[in-house]
Amino acid sequence: MKRYGMAVRFFAASCMASAMAPAAAGEAPASQWVGNAGVVSDYLFRGVSQTDRKPALQAGAEFDHASGWYVGGWGSNVSWLSDGSTTAAPVSSSVELDLYGGWRGNLGGDWSVDLGAYRYQYPGSYPAGYTLPNTSELYAALAWKSLSLKYSHALTNLFGYADSEHSGYVDLSWNQEFAPGWQLNAHAGHQQVRNVPGASYSDWKLGVTRNFAGHWSLALGYYDTNARRSVYTNARGHYLGRATTVLSLARSF
């Protein structure tokens, strides 16, 4: 079975939110490094488990220039590639390493924009003829207050699906503080996978994040998808798009 893995980047999102925070009145923006590290009970990306329902360690770092340009990297352990391989055609990849860069800034009032490129890399050994999972996407996001709409467009095959170039993902997210230190997180998305019957699906999330002790964040979310079992069930018989709850603990720095 060929499928692609997807996840909720709780830690990368926390970095981006910090970087997009406006400077105090009269204060010029400054270039800075931001980062985060943490653990999740299950690594999800666009609603689909990357670790076969097991925990993952994740970390990322980003440099934000005062002009609005940024570049960063992010990594996590994964198992979806090796879980889907066979003894006759083994895959050794167990790590995801991402690189990204772009520009973000205010458009005036409560509006902001984020434009960039993302590269998902899965180092490891693959059998001859295997469609590599490494994927490049361009993305554009428009935000109004705590509501954001983002579109990601694949320039390559999408996470191991042959002939799937120009697939796209639409992400609508709302992250609203409802009490000091507490934030409500809601999300709905749709993944289109070109030229692969039955692989397209939608996913959604509802959760809460608690920020405490300065740089720590604890998040709990409920996730679900309508991904087809016939496409998103791995070689162990585990359906990776099922409804689930995920607990995340992260520290920013």
Helices and strands in order, then pairings?
Layout: H1 10-19, E1 32-40, E2 44-45, E3 48-49, E4 56-64, E5 69-77, H2 80-83, E6 95-108, E7 111-121, E8 135-144, E9 147-154, E10 168-179, E11 182-192, E12 201-212, E13 216-225, E14 244-252
Antiparallel strand pairs: 1-4, 1-14, 2-3, 4-5, 5-6, 6-7, 7-8, 8-9, 9-10, 10-11, 11-12, 12-13, 13-14
Number of domains: 1
What kind of sheet is the major sheet? 12 strands, antiparallel, barrel
Examine the secondary-structure arrangement and name the CATH architecture. Beta Barrel
As residue ranges, the low-confidence spans are 1-25
- Name of the CATH first level: Mainly Beta
pLDDT averaged over residues: 90
Overall geometry comes to: globular
Distance between the termini: 40 Å
Tell how many strands the DSSP assignment holds: 14
**Tally of helical runs:** 2
Give the CATH topology. Answer: Porin
Spatial order of strands in the largest sheet = 1-4-5-6-7-8-9-10-11-12-13-14
